[in-house]
Write a structure and sequence with these properties.
- The structure is a single chain.
- The chain is α/β, with parallel strands linked by helices.
- It has a domain at 10-117 and 166-235: Glutaconate Coenzyme A-transferase (3-Layer(aba) Sandwich).
- The chain is built from 8 helices and 13 strands.
- The strands form 3 sheets. Strands 1, 2, 3, 4, 10, 11, 12 and 13 form an 8-stranded mixed sheet that branches.
- The longest helix is centred in the middle third of the chain and has 13 residues, at 102-114.
Length: 266
């Protein structure tokens, strides 16, 4: 029988996340974000955190809660997004931010989990990503205090490529739709996003799952991330409301005034 990786609560799962720890955090916008685990880190009190995430949550939610409390020292990500506090802290020199092309971020996480120390990619050649000088931290007066260093560039078959280093972190926090007690995870649709990649990159990966089942209950073919990458599993709070970042609606064709106008026009 597989050893159970289930722990009793999110608080217990993140109890050893200490000051200065690095975290790879899954999610994209408000989709597939491990909000229970993030909230537990908020309560844990750890500070000076290095966060690797596509974006850093939204104002007052997800990783945004850690930002609001000034508990994040550095972010590696691709998108500042709708988080105004994230942008404010960066521009005010309160936060160091390394912006990484989204595909390069995904591959750096995957490489870290696969034992690949670095790789070459054409993405970023001819830009500040390769040449250096991209602002990482501003001074209070708006000048650049810390800038990105130049990267190694090599030519292969007549095309130039920039060297990107793999990412590994102390912990990874991810959210899955289904998971078993052995840590095998299934992600529904877009919740898959950065979650499997972050899970691979973490030395200790903690997964919150919406539906927790016994080991062996998942169809092996449906498993997106094998349990070998996961060290701890917690049951997600099923009562928590799921956010919609941007609600877009339209009038259904064939009903109401719009349908009447279409009929008259015909």
């Amino acid at each position: 029988m597989a050893l159970s990786k289930v722990v009793e609560s999110a608080s217990v799962a993140v109890a050893d996340v200490a000051d200065g720890a690095s975290l790879a955090v899954g999610g994209f916008g408000v989709c597939g974000v491990p909000v229970d685990l993030i909230d537990a880190v908020v309560e844990n009190g750890a500070k000076e955190l290095l966060v690797v995430s596509n974006n850093c949550g939204v104002d007052g939610w997800g990783l945004g809660r850690l930002l609001d409390r000034h508990r994040v020292a550095r972010v590696m990500g691709s998108y500042v997004g709708e988080n105004q506090e994230f942008a404010r802290q960066f521009l005010a020199g309160e936060l160091e931010v390394e912006l990484v092309p989204q595909g390069s971020l995904a591959e750096r996480l995957r490489a870290g989990g696969s034992g690949i120390p670095a790789f070459y990619t054409p993405t970023g050649v001819g830009t500040l990503i390769a040449e250096g000088g991209l602002p990482w931290r501003y001074a209070p007066d708006g000048t650049v205090l810390v800038a990105s260093p130049p990267r190694e560039v090599r030519e292969f078959d007549g095309r130039r490529y920039v060297l990107e280093h793999a990412i590994t972190t102390d912990f990874a926090l991810v959210r899955a739709t289904r998971g078993d007690t052995a840590g095998n995870l299934v992600f529904d649709l877009a919740t898959r996003n950065f979650n499997p990649l972050c899970a691979m990159a973490g030395r200790v990966t903690i997964a919150e799952v919406e539906e927790l089942v016994p080991a062996g209950a998942l169809d092996p073919v449906s498993v997106h991330l094998p349990g070998i990458f996961v060290q701890r599993v917690v049951q997600a709070d099923r009562a928590r409301e799921k956010l919609i970042e941007k609600r877009t609606v339209r009038r259904h064709r064939g009903t109401g005034e719009a349908a009447a106008r279409e009929k008259d026009a015909a």
